[in-house]
Amino acid sequence: MTSFKLGVTIWSLGPTLNWRDLERQLAIVRDLSAEGVQLWAVDYSPRHPCLLDPDRCGSECRRRLADLFESYNLKISGFCAQLSSPRRFGGFDDPEGLEERVAKTCKVLEMAAELGAPIVTTHPGRIPKDREDPVYRLMLESIGKVARCAEDVGAYFCIETGMEPASVLRGFLEELGSPAVKVNFDPANLLMAYGAEEVIMGVKLLGPWIAHTHAKDHNPQTGRATVGEGLVPWREYLSELKAAGFEGWLALEDETGRDVVESLRRGLAFLRKLTGELG
């Protein structure tokens, strides 16, 4: 019996603009026989609102969401609160509008805790290697504020891997020192940025902080992200996760827009077989 849980990132199936979108997406996930879903929880843009943005999704919306998941017999693995500044992806490294991004992230953490899925993931920006870099200090301060919000509500703010080497992220987490700041481990991100060796070394370095993972692959020939059909060393990677004590979600992610449902179906089949073999 595997200790991993298999889910799907909902944005792989398009944006969640309204309840109709959400029900369509959950029906697909149920038909794929996945166990759960990671939800998107912030507006996509000023002109493309997300149904589940906490400024829009109040108590009635949250009750309806919980009831809907129960009716589909699915779990929420967590939420994604990917924000950006006008100049930078992530935006925790840019002072412009930073307080608003911190406040929004805190609202998502509160909602996640209320719904019993206290994981919120994001790329906050690239953490510099130099700890005296003003951007490093700004990120330490801003993520420290988010950490205190997470601690207050009993949730976890998870930094997604890939924008900096695992060693740099580990050093940042050690200096931050908050039990509420964890890692969302994405092996394909590390593979694409730093090579396959970084995937395995990343788990070794970040194992104590890993609270959630994305499962996607990278095939440089096809451009596909189908799990098991690219360069991620899945057997070694999952073995390292198990050795690190991780027993959480592998949330499949395919943002290519190309035959995504079939890609997810094949990826889930691959992971079911492999995790079953690993025990």
List the defining traits of the structure above:
279 residues, alpha/beta, eight-stranded parallel barrel, 14% strand
Overall, the morphology is globular
Amino- and carboxy-terminal Cα gap: 5 Å
The proportion of residues in beta strands is 5-15%
Kindly state the number of beta strands.
8
Summarize the structure.
This protein is α/β, with parallel strands linked by helices and 279 residues long. It has helices at residues 19-31, 59-72, 98-114, 134-153, 166-176, 187-194, 196-206, 234-243, 260-278; strands spanning 5-9, 36-40, 75-80, 119-122, 156-160, 181-185, 210-215, 249-252.
Question: Would you give an account of this structure?
Answer:
The chain is an alpha/beta fold and 279 residues long. Helices cover 44% and strands 14% of the residues. It contains nine helices and eight strands. It has helices at residues 19-31, 59-72, 98-114, 134-153, 166-176, 187-194, 196-206, 234-243, 260-278; strands at residues 5-9, 36-40, 75-80, 119-122, 156-160, 181-185, 210-215, 249-252. The chain has an eight-stranded parallel barrel with strand order 1-2-3-4-5-6-7-8, surrounded by four helices. Helix 8 links the parallel strand 7 and strand 8 (249-252). Helix 3 (98-114) runs parallel beside helix 4 (134-153), helix 6 (187-194) packs across helix 7 and helix 7 (196-206) packs parallel to helix 8. It starts with a strand and ends with a helix. The mean pLDDT is 97.
